[in-house]
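Quick start: what a row looks like.
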Amino acid sequence: MAGRMWAIELPFTKPMSLNHRMHYMVRAKLVAEVREGAREVIELAEVPPMDHVRVWVEYSPRDKRRRDPINIIPTLKACEDAMVDCGVTPDDTPDYVESVMPKILPKNEDRRGFLWLVIEEA
């Protein structure tokens, strides 16, 4: 049975993707930026420490192009690391975190993408 839930808007307009081919140093910088941005909004949302959570990312793109949800996994991973940084979970292993496949939502009308991190007490 699910417990409390937080849907936290992330400060990015598009997710990192498995399809992005980039130099490892460029990728490392991007991962660090996503992790830090996620940490900031998780702290602002005052998500408390929990024994076990279910977590996923939801993306509402700015257009109707086809997208594959599994490509958003790097964004989810950076957010899970940020949850550990904040003390929401002691680690991001399956003992504490159940990672759920990211969700692609319908196009929004604001002409920019939106990303949410959803954390559910499990």
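That is the whole record. The chain has a mean pLDDT of 94. DSSP finds two helices and five strands in the chain.
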